[in-house]
Amino acid sequence: MQTEKHLTGTLILSVFTAVLGFFQYGYSLGVINAPQKVIEAHYARVLADTSEELAASPHILTMYWSLSVSVFAIGGMVSSFTVGWIGDRLGRVKAMLVVNVLSIAGNLLMGLAKFGPSHILIISGRAVTGLYCGLSSGLVPMYVSEVSPTALRGALGTLHQLAIVTGILFSQILGLDFLLGNDEMWPLLLGLSGAAALLQFFLLLLCPESPRYLYIKLGKVEEAKKNLKRLRGNCDPMKEIEEMEKEKQEAASEKKVSIRQLFTSSKYRQAVIVALMVQISQQFSGINAIFYYSTNIFERAGVDQPVYATIGVGVVNTVFTVISVFLVEKAGRRSLFLAGLMGMLVSAVAMTVGLVLLSKFAWMSYVSMVAIFLFVIFFEVGPGPIPWFIVAELFSQGPRPAAIAVAGFCNWACNFIVGMCFQYIADLCGPYVFAIFAGLLLIFFLFAHFKVPETKGKSFEEIAAVFRRKKLSAKAMTELQDLRRSEEA
Fold it and tell me: Cys bridge to 203: 17, 415, 425, 484, which one at CB 3.0-4.6 A?
């Protein structure tokens, strides 16, 4: 009953408004997929007007297309480092309000792409939208975790991933050629998430500032109490105020750790390696290759209407994200992460076999398709949602902001590398392209098995103790080997 009391209208509005930022992130990830052929044809026409030589080179077209896909991630990479600074400087709500200007500007550039050099306008628009998404992907989890009651923090935290996959699904449906994925309407399709930015902008004016930010960062006790009452209904705010006071004292006693200290201090080394590897495994698992190029993959697998199969992936993606919201709190983070990686590994091998033998057996196209769906399901079980919040669980108050900034940068950098290189690697490797991801998934599985600790229900001290034990056992092993070598000598 207590939980139901906590779920007030203001809290629902605040969380919904914030995760619209992740909806836009998902929309931008998926929107470039369906209209690929239409936009490429338009690029070819524009380039032909500019220079015959350019239009004749397929490599130039591939380069412009790959850049249109992946420049989004460069924007995210650049801005992800400034999240902590802008969130503390302006406050969570005002920061989300201000960064929406970037989203609206980026979407306008893409929406007006036909009125100028379209390849330049699209690449610029995707870069500016990426800047927005990099900031938003840090500010939104910060705000949601701070306004959520403790009992609901886990469930409301996984809504980020749900908003992403809903955004992807929307972009895929609207990308159908009889809706917006055609030669006349594609600029509107690319620029449409600007509507979500406008909606978020006006709804943010109704949202209360984070009480935690007001109390801990600004020391505004009365304002924090007032906002807590708005978010919690007629619950007594004193218990949470006491918690905040405790957190404020802890934050004061624990010095803020810089990014440089994070990498140079041996105290954080194990946790930093784990934080970076979970981000790398999320992006290099091959999932973005499926989001960015699924229509193309289904075409190779011999599907008559590949766009509908891509939408099927979006639906499965959304359903299993909802399931993972409940799974994450029931099962442990580590076991779900391992199960997800192993399932994706098997699916990647099956996909490769299906694509390689397609020319000999027509029914192999079904093997490839089933493998794609299973690949997505296993991704949403573990490697999808877990990296978004496990980093915050691995670090205490002092090193947390720096760790989140570094992990965010790493995630976006990997996203860029996959977006930029996948088309070239796919052209080079043909049907064997997912064998590369299968190899990477095996490495990630082994790393997770030996290095990633279980964080569910554990305090930061307990997690730090796990890392210390692993470090000591590794040290003991090295000393034992040295001792044996000296005895043999």
Answer: 17
